[in-house]
Amino acid sequence: MDHRYLLRTLAALASFVMLASSPVLASDASAMSAPSSQPTLRFIESNGIRMRIAEMGKGPLVIFVHGWPESWYSWRHQLPAIAAAGYRVVAPDMRGYGKTDKPAAVEDYSIQQVTADLVGIVDALGEKDAILVGHDWGAIVTWHAMLLHPNRFSALVSMSVPYNGRGPVSIVEGLRRTLGDNFFYILYFQEPGVAEKEFDADPHGILSRLYLSPDSPRHPPQVTDPKRAAGGWIPRLGAPRGLPSWLTQAELDYYVSEFKEAGFRGGINYYRNFHRNWETTPQLAGARIEKPVLFIAGDKDSVIRGATAEALTNGMKNAVPGLVGVKLIPDTGHWVQQERPAETNAAILEFLRGLPK
Prior knowledge:
Helix content: 25-40%
CATH superfamily: Alpha/Beta hydrolase fold, catalytic domain
Largest sheet: 8 strands, mixed
Order of helices and strands: HHEEEHEHEHEHHHHHHHEHEHH
Strand content: 5-15%
CATH topology: Rossmann fold
CATH architecture: 3-Layer(aba) Sandwich
Oligomer: single chain
Distance between the termini: 44 Å
């Protein structure tokens, strides 16, 4: 096995911790008559499921794709800013999240299905193609949407998770060989029904421990034994001593309420498709993304493991010849678009304005 590939893959998928600040939309009903400074929330049919989308603005279509454990609300700072610049912006609750449908079968969350959901959004909105913006698992989905549906997506802004090409083994297989009986959240998520039972019982517990900055003060963890048998994930994450500066209590409460209703199983099922996705996409060996791509991350995002912009560029250049730049935002962690909305919005807009008309 190519251990360099495994290390790169681990680095690209190995963390989570942070978010930002704006008023919570009161409800879907009130949002339907909300002022133009807030998106409209409505439902569409896409790829055989009912999806809730947040939408505003007119112009070229830009779809914002959230990660785990998030929702359309992760883009609350981007939607008004990008819409005001002359774009039609849409942020769905991805399948399994929020008010969007939550199919029961694990395979219903395969990369083929979740990328087809994005194509379905383009179709439902009467557009021919769209620009994609994806963060965390949304980055994984949008990288693959560019590869699997190249005629439907014209450009990409990817955040936090870089793309180095298809590796010789799946991430799950590599982790199992490397970690054995030790705890790692991706392997924990492979256990049917286990992680969602833990998180559904304490949504505030898991979300408040993940939505933090790298330097956020924490209480000591309750479980320090590295073996999986010692416990789940919440007790391994020290409880926060307070909210980070960019996350209000109202914002955290909104996320918690969404997951209390939706549960965590749908989002965790994305992880349960890692091996299936690798097995079912052999055609992506050597595939390249030629269309324009911008990569954005916080320089302290543990997913990139301290990599410089030069190192990230070199890691992606073979698989992503369309890469036009890497933007690392200083003193910023994983939840980059929520921690540093002004800097993130400026980078997105500069990229959009430079695209061919």
